[in-house]
Predict the structure.
Amino acid sequence: MHKREIQVIGFASCYGARDQRCDTGPVALKNLQLTTKLENANFDVEWSNSITPHHKPESNQDTLSVILNNCKELARQTYTAVKANKQIIVIGGDHSCAIGTWSGVHSALSSTLPNTLPNTSQLGLIWIDAHMDSHTMETSDSGAIHGMPVASLLGYGDKELCSIESEAPKILPENLCLVGIRSYEPAELKLLNQLGVKVFYMEDIEELGLSKVMQLAQKHVRKNCSRYGVSLDLDAIDPEDAPGVGSPESHGISGSKLVQALKSCNFNDDFIGIEITELNSSRDEVDKTARLAIEAILACLSQQSEKT
Ligand SMILES: [Mn+2]
């Protein structure tokens, strides 16, 4: 029986966020038997050693350099996994890890795909989040890097963050789709509107239903792309269902509807994997959020496990 290979990579860093307690994600999910659950779903599972900050940063500049180093390391790991034709699960950490995850995936795809120009790839990304994460150093009041990964992946903001693996933008605006947005600042909206990035706000989800929105998002990112993935910030989910996050925002997505919608997407062989971020165990209620994170992971991978 053919088993799909999956690489699980922990990114145990929280220095991109103001609330610095979201580095427990990898340990929390491991303790809740993520490995066994994936094996039961017929995956061949390998865990990498978690990526951890070298030291506690002492200034904004130092924070940038610590995150940059961690993201470079993460990018090498996702690069290697995708090159080896494995699917990936990245467990943050704060959402700054996305800069590393998708830079590495971009690099692997642009070196693998036939008929593509150097430094281009057809990577699609569904970004599920309460926030736009589209700040740059210039527009951010807090300077928190977990508010910047979308801008960085599009090629805007700090030059070093935009240049991991290569100087090319990692995601083209037309290949990105944001889902669940309900908290953002004018500068972020301006950037995404200028670039024409597709955004499904909470109002759209209320109107169309989450399953429909996720199917539209999937169609959108598949249009030009041979491969695509999901980046899930757990704060997209309503704090009632996912209290264990760093920056809770009320009026979010229902946890059970998210799991159902992810299942209904039937992610297939063109699906690269999922990144789960911002789990903050110290605010969690009896592992409620961590358990939901595991359900979301399994929902994304249900199609492949049933097929075998
Ligand atoms: Mn986020």
